[in-house]
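Lab channel / #folding
Pinned by the channel admin:
"Please post every new chain as: sequence first, then the structure tokens as a reply. Keep commentary short and put observations after the output so the thread stays searchable."

First post following the new format, from NK:
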Amino acid sequence: MHLKLSLFLLCQLLFSNTVNEFGSSLEWAKGTPKIKLSEMRGKAVFILFFQSWCPKCNVWSGEKLKEFEFAFGNDKNVILIAIKTDGGGISGALKYLKTRKVTLSKWYVGSDKGGSYHANYYKERALWNYMLIGADGKIRRKGFFGTNWNSGKLNLGTVTPVFKGEYAKEFDTVVLPAERCNFKKALAALPRVKTKDKDALKKVSDELISFLDKMVDTSVKKLNDPDNDWGSRYDEFIYLTMIGKNYSKYSKYTFVKAAKVNSSKLKLNKFIRKEQAADKAYQSLMKRISKYSGEKRTKKLSSGLKNIVTKYPDTKYAKIATTEL
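Reply from TO:
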């Protein structure tokens, strides 16, 4: 049923285990939160890059998607993301997945304009690819989605559920979005839960806030650890900056205060600013080269990467660029 590897050349992966946040090229389905991979720490994240034009892929894609959905669609420790890379916008992505009989409520669905984000991971415009990000935020596995692999053997890392116990359905408006890392929606739903069990509601609230406190506390320690390189510390800076900005409405909570205070301390740090500049240059390059293909794309990519290595030595993105050259 699945395409054999001999039918298609697997694309060469650009770098080992580094994952970038979703950029401006991503459009998400209505109602989807602004997805941040850093906010999904503690969960395994499966990203599917798909296209609709390939007739042979369309023969097996529906069955393969349902197979994977059956294995992980109800697993609260796994986040499923499907991203269309060959145009058509979000409406095209949703329409195609519906024809494949996908349960859309189990996936975050997006469209990658020009395949720009996809270009971070594949040198050529590939067909169906996947990327598994472990609970530690590192890429654990990636390849061609048509490959017949045993999903039960996926290395998810040490996953961390938000809630330790099970709760009644009346708390689903908080529990379900939280387990899908839509914490803003979960926090907004807390005061609107209609229940007579106030003790259970308090427990749900306490577990949610405790989880967020722990995630931020871990990040703060990594940010301020002088033994960590500045590339790693920059990742934590980005995460904490995002928390401080996106959760400003909930500034009464310790995790928001801690994120704001610690990210502000390093906002003007020369090493952080250098990492920011390298990050911006790299993302700009990926966006520019998405317009090209073949030899022309390769030349422009090589030239741009060399410029990043020269201009921003010792940064996270200079190291990434070096591995790509």
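NK: Residues 169-265 form one domain.
TO: also worth noting, Strands lie at 26-28, 44-50, 78-84, 108-112, 129-133, 139-144.
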